[in-house]
């Protein structure tokens, strides 16, 4: 072992400090496989004290570190820093407490998102944020990147469900932000820590807000002859005063992919499908579904299906949730983008994406959270063709610039990470970014916590990619 | 004379021009205005953008919340967290700086969950933007959330963007009598975890009465109310809409406390802490007030003689309180207060020369 790492062995046993090349290779990339970087070591702590010890060692020796859960980040957020330490938090996966009276769960960062809802289920509670990778992604990563999902319009993102965070900062200081109460006094540090992309430190214990599970769902799938018509339907639903739990659209190419992958049986010949889901007490959903049915009947849907039971509901969602990985069947490689436009400009945005696609020759499949204007264009390319990746990246960049020009955002839920660093100045002035850097320096003056992410100008690791993420191939994760 | 800027640029100039400044809006929360040359924010008023279909609006920070609520109402939308002291003249900026939410925070979350973007002047007298204007956004640090409850100690907010929701078609309010506080605590927990989807869930200690607001289509509300009535037969009263509206408005304004000269104190808590906290407060003769948002916060009117006692009781029991309304006290913070080093470090980052009031 590299002798400079010997100090780490005072923090945790040698068998949990990995330095051999084969092992390290597994950590070179995360969900954004286009980037690779070799860490100096991967450490696998089992206790909070060990995490704190590693961070303090990194601070003292000015060695950069990246905390990592399941490595599903789509923005390269958990990409190692070249020659830095990867702190793999997967063994810190204890659900410390589920309190049905206070309606909170206290968890370690390596806990899988879906496991929180599983643990809360016996009390009729659940954890609302549901990124598509929820069966594998961890709470620590959700917090760091303020993850979203299909229910953000109504329930918000991860930050809206985080009440308290015990964390070790880049300085080595251990702090407790927020607490168990949904209310608090003083500046909202827990809110600030969420979405800080690992640049402040490592969350050690996270207190999550749990909500009662919805009693029932009403899920409708409607097929349209054009994307524009589906867009009009979304506007009609929004303007009706209903607040659906989910409002999703897929275009023809995404439908084709989903159909090939999971045979979801979406309406044949649809250029777009719309999924609308109401949820709540039976009586309320019964009243609202009448209203919704009326609204959709007035749209130009050529086929409308209502999930009669949970199985049919799952079939509808399977098509949607599989869409991203399914696109891998249509193309050897693809880039998932994550931009936001004002919802009323969705139609215009999609038309422009279509034009850019035609102009550049890259096929683009569209899947999006229509209720909140969050687009996920999937840009299809073949990494074996020279210049294809660069061309696809350039198109992705144009789409992001379009989002900013329309008054939206370069990321709705994936974060800036490695991928979108250079686009941050499109949204914020030089001074805005300088202020962010000053805030970062308050938490981590030596810049040891996940350096090189979020802010533009840092040295980029080599781009190289072909094929899907191994977990994606195995059907364990999907990109959203 | 106090500065009265009419643009963000003028706020920045006013900050730059003085060694110590403090922003003030509608002065509904006087104990929270810190020391320094006062910058009157009332001149920075008006809704800049409101597109109902986007579920968002952007307004200047000095805009009275009342004006915003009026505009939203026309489009059948609302701020679901029920901002406080609206009739008293509270502004958007002051509401953010104070970090206070009303009973409606129970269902969808508090002010922090609806604030999506800000423009503010930092301690160097420069304008900074953070967050955005769309309902979903994960770019950059979430300084808007950080400024919620920051009492103007880190910056003066000049423009704000909020997410809003469609208002429920109808609402109905139920009052549930409780034999004692223990029973009330159990019932709050039951409603909070129930399938009923209450919009608001409060407990009036003096009246020993749990107050539940449901929202949605009338037909559904009837059925849900029926079930709640049979759950606690003989103890549930359906309040007529006018009285209900007055009741909620009274609580949101705390007009009674203003008349008696009491201060209004906010104490964050959880339902399982209700017993121990109550014990502490009862010992100093301050066991009244109201639990709001399903027991996430205790709002307490405290008269002059009992302030020290409440402060001591909170400290002993390990709670923190904020003196929100009434005459200023020696400090807005009472009870236990822990100052992590990071608080000072972030203060230094945003207000390096200490122009804004101290921590």
What can be said about this structure in brief?
Chain A has 480 residues and is of the alpha+beta class.
Description of the structure:
The complex is a heterodimer of chains A (480) and B (359). Chain A is α+β, with helices and mostly antiparallel strands. Helix content of chain A is 32%, strand content 20%. Chain A is built from 15 helices and 19 strands. In chain A, strands 12, 13, 14, 15, 16, 17, 18 and 19 form an 8-stranded antiparallel sheet that branches. Chain A has a 5-stranded antiparallel sheet with strand order 5-6-10-8-9. A 4-stranded mixed sheet of chain A has the order 1-2-4-3, with helices on one face. In chain A, β8 (162-169) and β9 form a beta hairpin. The longest helix of chain A is centred in the middle third of the chain and has 18 residues, at 310-327. The relative contact order of chain A is 0.13. Chain B has 359 residues and is an alpha+beta fold. Chain B has 12 helices and 18 strands. Chain B has helices spanning 8-17, 65-74, 92-98, 105-108, 143-147, 181-192, 218-231, 241-253, 255-260, 274-283, 307-317, 341-350; strands at residues 21-24, 37-40, 47-51, 56-60, 77-78, 115-121, 127-131, 156-163, 165-166, 170-177, 200-204, 209-216, 236-239, 263-268, 290-292, 297-302, 320-325, 333-335. In chain B, α10 packs antiparallel against α11. Chain B is globular and about 65 Å long. The two termini of chain B are 25 Å apart. The mean pLDDT of chain B is 96. Chains A and B meet through α5, α6, α7, α9 and α14 of A and β7, α5, β9, α7 and β17 of B.
């Amino acid at each position: 072992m590299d002798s400079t790492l010997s100090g780490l062995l005072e923090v945790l046993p040698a068998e949990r400090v990995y330095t051999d090349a084969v092992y390290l290779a597994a950590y070179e990339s995360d969900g954004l496989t286009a980037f690779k970087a070799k860490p100096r070591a991967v450490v696998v702590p089992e206790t909070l004290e060990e995490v704190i010890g590693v961070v303090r060692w990194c601070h003292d020796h000015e060695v950069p570190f990246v905390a990592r859960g399941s490595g599903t980040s789509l923005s390269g957020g958990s990409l190692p820093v070249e020659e830095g330490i990867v702190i793999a938090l997967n063994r810190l996966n204890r659900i410390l407490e589920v309190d049905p009276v206070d309606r909170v769960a206290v968890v370690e960062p390596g806990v899988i998102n879906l496991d929180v809802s599983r643990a809360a289920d016996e009390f009729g509670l659940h954890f609302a944020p549901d990124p598509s990778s929820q069966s594998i992604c961890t709470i620590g990563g959700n917090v760091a990147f303020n993850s979203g999902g299909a229910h953000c319009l109504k329930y918000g993102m991860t930050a809206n469900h985080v009440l308290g965070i015990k964390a070790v900062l880049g300085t080595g200081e251990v702090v407790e932000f927020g607490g168990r109460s949904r209310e608090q006094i003083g500046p909202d540090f827990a809110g600030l820590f969420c979405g800080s992309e690992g640049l402040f430190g490592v969350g050690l214990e996270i207190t999550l807000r749990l909500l009662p599970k919805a009693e029932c769902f009403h899920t409708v799938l409607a097929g349209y002859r054009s994307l524009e018509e589906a867009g009009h339907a979304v506007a009609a639903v929004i303007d009706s005063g209903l607040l659906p739990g989910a409002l999703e659209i897929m275009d023809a190419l995404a439908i084709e992919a989903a159909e090939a992958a999971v045979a979801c049986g979406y309406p044949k010949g649809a250029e777009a499908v719309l999924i609308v889901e109401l949820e709540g007490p039976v009586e309320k959903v019964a009243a609202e579904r009448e209203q919704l049915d009326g609204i959709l009947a007035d749209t130009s849907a050529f086929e409308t299906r209502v999930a009669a039971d949970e199985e049919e509901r799952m079939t509808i969602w399977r098509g949607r949730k599989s869409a991203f990985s399914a696109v891998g069947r249509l193309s050897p490689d693809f880039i998932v983008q994550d931009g936001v436009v004002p919802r009323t400009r969705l139609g215009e945005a999609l038309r422009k994406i279509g034009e850019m696609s035609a102009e550049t020759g890259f096929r683009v499949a569209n899947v999006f959270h229509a209720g909140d204007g969050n687009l996920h264009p999937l840009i299809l390319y073949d990494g074996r063709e020279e210049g294809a990746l660069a061309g696809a990246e350039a198109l992705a960049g144009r789409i992001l610039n379009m989002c900013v020009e329309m008054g939206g955002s370069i990321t709705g839920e994936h974060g800036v990470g490695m991928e979108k660093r250079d686009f941050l100045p499109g949204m914020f002035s030089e001074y805005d970014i300088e202020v962010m850097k000053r805030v970062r320096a308050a938490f981590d003056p030596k810049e040891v916590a996940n350096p090189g992410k979020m802010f533009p100008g840092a040295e980029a690791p080599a781009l190289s990619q072909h094929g899907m993420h191994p977990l994606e191939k195995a059907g364990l994760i999907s990109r959203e | 004379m106090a500065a009265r800027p009419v643009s963000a640029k003028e706020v920045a100039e006013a900050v730059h021009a003085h060694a110590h400044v403090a922003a003030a809006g509608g002065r509904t929360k006087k104990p929270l205005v810190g020391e320094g040359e006062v910058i009157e924010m009332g001149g920075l008023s008006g809704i800049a953008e409101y597109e109902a279909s986007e579920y968002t609006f952007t307004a200047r920070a000095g805009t009275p919340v009342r004006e915003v609520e009026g505009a939203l109402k026309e489009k059948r939308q609302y701020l679901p967290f029920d901002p406080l002291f609206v009739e008293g003249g509270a502004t958007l900026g002051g509401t953010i700086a104070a970090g206070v939410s009303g009973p409606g925070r129970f269902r969808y979350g508090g002010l922090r969950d609806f604030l999506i973007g800000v423009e503010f002047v930092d301690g160097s007298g420069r304008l900074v933007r953070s967050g955005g204007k769309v309902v979903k956004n994960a770019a950059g640090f979430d300084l808007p959330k950080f400024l919620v409850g920051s009492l103007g100690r880190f910056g003066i907010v000049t423009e704000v963007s909020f997410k809003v929701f469609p208002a429920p078609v109808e609402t109905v309010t139920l009052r549930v009598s409780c034999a004692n506080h223990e029973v009330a605590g159990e019932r709050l927990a039951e409603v909070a975890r129930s399938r009923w989807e209450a919009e608001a869930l409060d407990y009036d200690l003096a009246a020993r009465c749990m107050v539940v607001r449901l929202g949605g289509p009338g037909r559904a509300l009837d059925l849900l109310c029926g079930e709640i009535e049979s759950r606690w037969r003989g103890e549930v009263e359906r309040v007529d809409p006018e009285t209900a509206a007055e009741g909620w408005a009274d609580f949101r304004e705390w007009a009674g406390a203003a008349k008696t000269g009491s201060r209004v104190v906010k104490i964050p808590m959880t339902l399982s802490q209700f017993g121990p906290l109550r014990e502490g407060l009862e010992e100093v003769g301050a066991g009244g007030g109201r639990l709001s948002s399903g027991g996430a916060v205790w709002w307490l009117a405290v008269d002059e003689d009992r302030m020290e006692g409440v402060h001591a009781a909170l400290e002993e029991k390990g709670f923190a309180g904020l003196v929100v309304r009434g005459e200023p006290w020696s400090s807005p913070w009472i009870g236990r207060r822990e100052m992590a080093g990071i608080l000072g470090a972030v203060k230094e980052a945003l207000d390096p020369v200490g122009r804004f009031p101290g921590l």
